[in-house]
Amino acid sequence: MGRLFNQMTRGKKKLFAVSALMVMSCLLLLPIFLSVTAVAGGGGAPAGGPPADVVAAQKAAGEEGEAEKVEMGRDVYYKTEGPAIGMPAPVTEDNETFYPRYNFESRVLLWVANQQHLYYGSFVLAVPIFCMCIEFAGMVSKDKAMAKKYDQLAYDFIKISLTAYSLTAILGGILIFTFLTLYPAFFGYLSSIFRPVMHIYALTFVAESATLYIYYYGWDKMREGVLKWVHLSMSVILNVIGTVLMFLANSWIAFMMSPAGVDEQGRYLGNIWHVIHTALWNPLNVHRILGNMAFGGGVVAAYAAYRFLSSKTDEERAHYDWMGYIAMSLGVAFLIPLPFAGYWLMREVYAYRQQMGITLMGGLLAWLFIIQATMIGILFLTTNYYLWQALGRMTGGERFQKYIKYLVFILVVGLLVFITPHTIVMTPAELKAMGGQQHPVLGNYGVMSAKNGGINAIIMTTVLSFIWYQRGNRVPTVSWAKFGNIFMGCFFIIAQLNNVWLACYGYFIPANVRIGLSVPQVAGTLSCLLLMTPLNLAMLKNGRQLGPIRWGQIPPRSQYAIIMLATAFTWMMGLMGYIRSSVRLFWHVNEVMRDNSPWAYTHTIGFAANVISFNVLFFWISIMFVFWLGTLGAKKVPVPSPAGQPVPSPQSATGH
Amino acid sequence: MTWLKLVEGYMPMQMISELAVCILVFSIINYSLKRAGMGLPKFWAGIFVWCFVNLFYLKYRIYPPIPFSVRAIYGTVSACGIFMWVSGSQQEWEEFKRPIINVLDAKTGMTKFIRTALLILLPIGLWGFAYNSFLPSFDEPIELRTVHPAPPATTKVHGKTYVLQTAANPYRINPEGKYDQAYSNAHIVSQDMGRLMKDVKNPEDNPWDPNAKGYIKHVREGGEIFFQNCHFCHGDNLNGRGLWAFAFNPIPANFTDAGTIAQLQETFVFWRVAKGGIGLPGEGFPWASVMPPWEQHLTVDEIWKVIMFEYWHTGYYPRTWE
């Protein structure tokens, strides 16, 4: 009887806890719902104009000749008519009123503040997604030791994220102050257009903070049973809010690049959805989500690599080797689709404005894209290199290491094609010797058809390296193993041949058809990833294991590769941010509000590279500080493994 | 290397294939030598492959010569590739670095000699490099020229405003007189037809046919305009090597290159021809183009026709987005 009573009491407690959390979650999400309702209702009018319903009333009254007449405007993008209820975009001049300044370039100050905020923002948006995945993996793991390890890892991640979160908020404040003090006219205009969205943003930020704190501080309280699932659900809510937050911020930059919802004078036309949902908003959203995830994975992996290299014991090395592997895998999983999302974004940019596309890919900023291509190459090369090194910590991995040279050849050739510039830097003497701007042999590598072939060859090779890694210490024993191996081999060969053939064929057909060829090329690559990886896992199910994964016994070179990967991510992110912003040239808001500051010119490549490098350095120094802070608090010691036993692998190598 | 020609149209793949064959042959030879107990050590194999690719193949095999900036990129990437190869596994890495460690340890007379020589030669080499970099250069400075500056949204030619995103060539028409890019694409000159077009059987493809009508007639008219005005610089074969071409720096655009008109919308070319070098926008600096603004010499119709001829003759299609 007493036991039954206890059970009922415990059950009630759980029910109460679950109900309380649900109420809390609802309350946290309330601002979003309220704001969305407000947006759906028109969102009010920006500064400089009365609300839409008032306008409508005024309009009606105007018909009676009692109120002033409302002027109609035509949307610059959607081409719809609407009441011009906002103020026109200010016409600025180069003076202290419009552009207050220090004895320093305001644009660079804003650039640095913006980039640092973005770095931290990306990091704190990505890490909770990792936590969610890792916590879930721990919950569904049947191996209790592994479940604890996963849980510990997720906790370690969120602990780092929490300190970074505060820094993100501080940097966000610095960014707003920089805008307000150095670009008041522009920021005033932007905030007048986005007034309701900015309030939603602020409320969402509050909701995110509250959810994050409950998630972090409730970790121990909600460690078992139903409460653990509630805890996991909190991470889902946290990530939903985080993603909404990012989408809202993206709408501002998308508006600056491809404005909509305003007329030619920049007057708001009463439809806030048009202002948010501009031509480039969705491609930017997708690209940024993937980019953030890849970046976050890279940073955490670099943290693990640093800890690995400074480890004093085998146990520590094993833990951080494993942590680095998990973070790296998550990062790379999002890196692989990133070029496709980037391609979509560029395609939409071209479709939106031809001159914007040409400025980016063939004109003023084209050389920066070569640097970007080099960075992408570094990312994939280091990923492959890490996987090859990781084969060395598995018994049986040496079976594949002898074939590395062939993969190196494909990777190097793919990369060389991918980074060959269309506009070559050369001395006048070299130009005369070459006989023209384009080299008759290499010039062909400089255009899209070849470059698509190059990057797809690289990605396919990376997938193959990953499949080899999955097989490192395992041998398939299914009855159809031989057939499966032949099928996989043929599939990869045909996919590569298809890729190369289409890259060559692209030169002989019209450009619009050539653009379409990227679809079968990408389809081949994605098929390798999405079909061959599961097929490989199916073949390895219940396969013969040749030995355990010897966590921690990986050459230090692999960890330097991870650090290089993370640095390349950071550098590339800074570069692409600069490119995206620079493409507006002398416009604050493209074709709507002109930048008349003395800095409305495009920097030289060298100067831009120096500022990007400064940003990268500043970020890494500050994030090292964050990591160090993370080690100061009370540590949850990694689950010790029995003496002399290898640290348990997450499953087998095939588990990832 | 005149006995093995780079075949026009296949050169990019030919280069990759040749490199692949060379490396394959090297691998087979090295493998056979290894079997005979005389394999090349990893260290020397890596150095040999790098030198072969960068100092021999790319420098002497590929013609015209590849500018240094590109060879520097290739050299760096291939060095990274070779590093990845020689350090792919711990065993190979140990094998690769053994000669380096031996020299650093200097336990034998020979390694002692090499280490001493390196200690003397390296600073001298660095000194020479530093000395050379401080020498005054009389070469013209390198300019990162924007070959395709971004066009404006609209351009005004002979009093009429053209929206570059939506404008179309009025002469790119089918026999019914309607704008039809697919039709004109199907009637461009192809490599196997020969430039003089003597063997063309289909009258619709023959611009020299006195009865030619519609699209192909306009192509001929465009050709007449081209040879009256443009070929002096852009050349008979539209390859940028006209009579006056080498008086300019850079030389005029090579339309037969896949990276010029084949990459551009027809309206972009229209804007460039109409406005010439001096009409380039600010972000196109350094302009380095002496092309006259042809709107001062040609009518709008003539500009469209000459553009159509350029696409027809080179066998390329203007870029479209639909």
Essential attributes:
heterodimer; A: 656 residues; two-stranded antiparallel sheet; 70% helix; B: 322 residues; mainly alpha; elongated
Give the total of beta strands of chain A: 6
Spatially, the strands of the biggest sheet of chain B line up as 1-2
Oligomer: heterodimer
Molecular shape of chain B = elongated
How is the secondary structure organized here?
The complex is a heterodimer of chains A (656) and B (322).
Chain A: H1 2-40, H2 52-63, E1 72-74, E2 81-83, H3 106-140, H4 144-182, H5 184-193, H6 195-217, H7 225-257, H8 272-276, H9 281-309, H10 314-335, H11 338-352, H12 354-361, H13 366-391, H14 398-401, H15 404-419, H16 428-434, H17 448-471, E3 474-475, H18 481-505, H19 511-540, E4 544-545, H20 556-582, E5 587-589, E6 593-594, H21 605-632
Antiparallel strand pairs in A: 1-2, 3-4, 5-6
Chain B: H1 11-35, H2 42-61, H3 68-86, H4 90-105, H5 109-134, E1 154-157, E2 160-163, H6 181-185, H7 214-229, H8 231-234, H9 266-275, H10 300-314
Antiparallel strand pairs in B: 1-2
In brief:
The complex is a heterodimer of chains A (656) and B (322). With 656 residues, chain A is mainly alpha-helical.
Verbal overview:
The complex is a heterodimer of chains A (656) and B (322). The longest helix of chain A has 39 residues. In chain A, 70% of the residues lie in helices and 2% in strands. Chain A contains 21 helices and 6 strands. With 656 residues, chain A is mainly alpha-helical. In chain A, helix 9 packs antiparallel against helix 10. In chain A, a hairpin with a 3-residue loop joins strand 5 and strand 6. With 322 residues, chain B is mostly helical. Chain B has 2 domains: 95 residues, no CATH class; 161 residues, Cytochrome Bc1 Complex, Chain D, domain 2. Chain B is 48% helix and 2% strand. The longest helix of chain B is centred in the middle third of the chain and has 26 residues. Classes of the chains: A mainly alpha (656), B mainly alpha (322). At the A-B interface, helix 12, helix 13, helix 15, helix 16 and helix 19 of A face helix 1, helix 3 and helix 4 of B.
